[in-house]
Amino acid sequence: MHILVMLGLVGFGAQMVDGSLGMGFGATSTTMLLAMGTTPALASATVHLTQIGTTLASGLSHWRFDNLDWAVVRRIGIPGGIGAFIGATFLSSLSTAAATPLMAGVLFILGLYILIRFTTAGVPVANLGKPLRNRFLAPLGLVAGFVNATAGGGWGPISTSTLLASGRIEPHKVVGSVGTSEFMVATSASAGFLLGLGFHGVKFSWVALMLLGGVIAAPVAAWLVRRIPARILGSAVGGLIVLLNARTLLSEHALNISPGTRGPIYLLVLLAWAAAVTHVIRLHRKQQEPDVRTRPAAPRRRR
């Protein structure tokens, strides 16, 4: 019973992160499924089946709150779907022994990227209004879709971060457009897994519970996207993904690090994560404080 509750919470938490940050559903939920002992291909298949529903709910919610640029959705989503289908068929052909360290390695890198980016960099908003061309969006979607299906996550970290870095579209529309276009990516990846695996072994009860949690979270996340401090959330989620996938990479199935050495490494990662989140919280609080130099002088009292 506790596993079923956990799955619902995984879906809810992953969608809250993804809907608010524009990334993280795949990386977060796939990492949790791998930690529960699911094989890489089945974990990715389960996540993408779930995302067909969560991305649809997320897209409707973002449309309701005017967080979409439909041109970007179309021009990044179609090549993203093609890349996802190719990535799903590729992952389906790998053995579990080969796929586990590969997926953990990609997820570790994605988590590290999210952690570093949101800890050290702000969100650029320059060049707003300049057009985003197909020669930029199509390769971006193709690569992000392939990585997303192969690693069980990556669409958001690659697409959202790149579009934010371009500075040519408002941050809340980047989050909404990337999340909505992921519906095409999830559908295409699921078709690829159906072709490669036939969904043999996929637990549809898991899909249903994660979907339920994600659908409940979608409108809340779409509302929060304009209000939540993205840098704090990004640092927290990035560190969590790094920590969980470090466990897989350090195991005897991957890097074969001795048990006595793993503890200090886990502690080091945990301390670095805590320091990053603390740093970002301090920066956020400092930005919220009014500048003393700009405060109006208090009127003098007459004696």
TrEMBL record:
It holds the Pfam family TauE. Its main location: membrane. InterPro entries: TM_pro_TauE-like (IPR002781), TSUP/Inactive_protease-like (IPR051598). The keyword Membrane applies. It is a multi-pass membrane protein. Keywords: Cell membrane, Membrane, Transmembrane, Transmembrane helix. The keyword Glycosyltransferase does not apply. The chain crosses the membrane at residues 97-116, 136-158, 204-225, 232-250, 265-283. GO terms for cellular component: plasma membrane. It is found in: Cell membrane; Membrane. It comes from the Bacteria. Belongs to the 4-toluene sulfonate uptake permease (TSUP) (TC 2.A.102) family. This is Probable membrane transporter protein.
